[in-house]
Amino acid sequence: MSQEQMKIPQATAKRLPLYYRFLKNLHSSGKQRVSSKELSDAVKVDSATIRRDFSYFGALGKKGYGYNVEYLLSFFRKTLDQDETTKVVLIGVGNLGTAFLHYNFLKNNNTKIEMAFDADPKKAGTSIGEVPVYAMDDLEEKVKESNIEVAILTVPAGPAQGITDRLIDLKVKGILNFTPARLSVPEHMRIHHIDLAVELQSLIYFLKNYGTDDVETSQLEEI
Ligand code: ATP
Questions:
Q1: Are residues 194 and 99 part of one domain?
Q2: Per its UniProt record, what NCBIfam families does this chain match (predicted)?
Q3: Is pLDDT at 220 greater than 60 in this prediction?
Q4: Residue positions forming the annotated binding site for NAD(+)
Q5: Overall average pLDDT of the 200-223 stretch
Q6: At 30, which CATH number?
Q7: How confident is the model at residue 107 (pLDDT cuts 50, 70, 90)?
Q8: How remote is the CA of residue 126 from the centroid of ligand 1, in Å?
Q9: For the CA atoms of 104, 139, 144, 147, what is the dihedral angle to 10 degrees?
Q10: By Cβ atoms counted within 10 A, which residue in 1, 47, 76, 167 is the most buried?
Q11: Which CATH number characterizes residue 135's domain?
């Protein structure tokens, strides 16, 4: 990634795949320009945030014209490395893990769950949604030979750190952690925690306390 792209704030970077997916659909329906208002309605991010996000990557847009879809798409393609498929491993083929294996993310991005692992001997040796499930003893061998970059953890909290330590030794670059465990990883490794129970509770808290009021106000000029 170039120096220029490194300056994009993390919150903005997280929204890029959302923008990218919508713009691809727009492009395939033949649209050449889009306003921040249209984008905002589609991706449910307020238009001031969209304009600020887009300003980070040099898409300034024009009042009354909007943004050039082609320009935005080529930026996203470069930034998100969409030409390469990122190989993913999933560990823990329980209810949540199984759902991810069936879904397998291919519709949205060039990411693919290549293989899965589980400690349950009844699950090892099976396949789910065309993804092979292996025994935990085979983790090192299989991950090394497949050039896996990212791991999804859907095991219970207890074994999560031990498994993470094995992934660190295997030089996996990133972990999407669905367990409630707060995991320690070295600085060079990226970890995103998604605790679905906490997210649900927080949504309910906000609904109870703020309803559906918009919290962010538009300060930048409308495009
Ligand atoms: P299920 O109903 O299949 O048990 P679950 O999502 O309710 O699914 P969990 O207890 O959260 O069950 O476990 C998720 C998965 O993680 C299970 O398939 C389990 O076999 C697996 N698992 C548990 N411990 C480990 C471990 N140490 N290493 C790898 N996988 C594990």
A1: yes
A2: PRK05472.1-3 (NF003989), PRK05472.1-5 (NF003991), PRK05472.2-3 (NF003994), PRK05472.2-4 (NF003995), PRK05472.2-5 (NF003996)
A3: no
A4: 92-97
A5: 67
A6: 1.10.10.10
A7: low
A8: 15
A9: 10
A10: 167
A11: 3.40.50.720
Mean pLDDT of 198-220: 71
Ligand 1 centroid vs 203 CA: distance in angstroms? 26
**What is the domain range of residue 9?**
3-78
**Same domain flag for 94 and 185:** yes
Binding-site residues, in ranges, read 92-97
Pair (60, 130) in one structural domain? no
Closest residue CA from atom 17 of ligand 1? 94
Of 71, 49, 76, 57, the C-alpha closest to 222 is: 49
* Mean model confidence pLDDT for the chain: 86
Res. 81: pLDDT tops 70: no
Centroid of ligand 1 to alpha carbon of 154 (angstroms):
7
The answer to whether residue 116 is domain-embedded is yes
Amino acid identity, position 65: Y
Q: Tell me how far apart the alpha carbons of residues 144 and 146 are, in angstroms, rounded to a whole number.
A: 6
In a domain, 204, yes or no: no
Distance from the CA of 106 to the center of ligand 1, in angstroms? 24
Instruction: Report the number of distinct structural domains present in the chain.
Output: 2
Integer Cα distance of 59 and 51 in angstroms = 9
Mutating to test ligand 1, I would choose from 134, 140, 155, 183 the residue with most ligand atoms within 8 A of its C-beta, which is 155
73 exposed, middle or buried (CB, 10 Å; 0-12, 13-18, 19+)? middle
Work out the end-to-end distance of the chain between its first and last CA atoms, rounded to an integer number of angstroms. Answer: 29
